[in-house]
Amino acid sequence: MARSRRKVSRAAVFFALLSLVLGVLLYRATRPPGAGRAPAGKPLPTRAPSPVRREWTPRAADARRAPTLPAPGIPPPATPGAPSGPPRIAILIDDLGNDRAAVDRIAAWSWPVSTAILPALPGSGETARELERSGKEILLHLPMEPLGFPRVRPGPGVVLRSQSDQEIADTLTADLDTVPGVVGVNNHMGSAATADARVMRAVTRVLARRGLFFVDSRTTDATVARDAARESHVRSASRRVFLDDVATESAVEASLQGLFARARSEGSAIGIGHPHPATLAVLDRELPKLAERGVRLVRVSELVE
Fold first, then answer.
1. % helix / strand / coil in the chain, to the nearest 5?
2. Whole-angstrom Cα distance, residue 117 to residue 156?
3. Confidence (pTM)
4. What is the tens place of the pLDDT at every residue in 143-188?
5. Contact, 90 vs 302, CB < 8 A?
6. d(CA 219, CA 145)
7. By three-state DSSP, how is residue 115 classified?
8. Which helix (H) or strand (E) holds 214?
9. Is the dihedral of CA 91, 259, 186, 275 positive or negative?
10. CA-CA distance, 131 to 114, in Å (whole number)?
11. CA quadruple 43, 44, 47, 53: dihedral sign
């Protein structure tokens, strides 16, 4: 009986050792590569630290699938707020409304210039409709009180500092009604009015209700137009270069080069010109060459923020 017990006991020990060896081999075969190895000179931690981020849970893995690649020949979309490619310029031709020949000439351009039309003139409505049909962007060229008023007069539909907030709103609304298709507003003259915070707040409140942007023509360094626009949550931008302060072709060409330089240093820039023969002649020659100049022409609405 004693011999039988010793045999059973040895068999049990044998199977126990065999199970232990098999378990060790199975563990080594199935553990992740490199698990349990400590760098030279550093002991293994006794407890794994808590993870800071869990990026690869099943749900996280689903959310982080590789993006679908665009089809061959189709460029990937640009990142919002970080336009790629060459510096951008916008050219705004204002003081339009009565010069029929200039309007016809601009309407024939295939380039995306923007146009600003004076209100309450006999030709304001038809000018806006013709330019809109030709694919041009339409702004209201809002007459605003200049320094030297009333000796210097901006024309009909003018916003004055002597007006109440309601009178300013009524004037701007009436002006907008005479220029169909407007997407924004810029000031005509206005060196006094754009420096008056109350006046500009009254203007930008109307623009906010109508969903319009404002381009500050910067006829004075004392302007507060963009501050008022920000307060009213109105998109806005500022003119960087006047193309034709001197209305000769050589001067316009030099100003256009200045606009290119601004765009290269700042990423984008707005230039304002007028329907002078010299200005239109230079743009006729230069707009087809913008790619060679390393700049891209866009609508003014693409540069407001």
1. 40, 15, 45
2. 12
3. 0.73
4. 999 999 999 999 999 999 999 999 999 999 999 999 999 999 999 9
5. yes
6. 11
7. strand
8. strand 213-216
9. negative
10. 9
11. positive
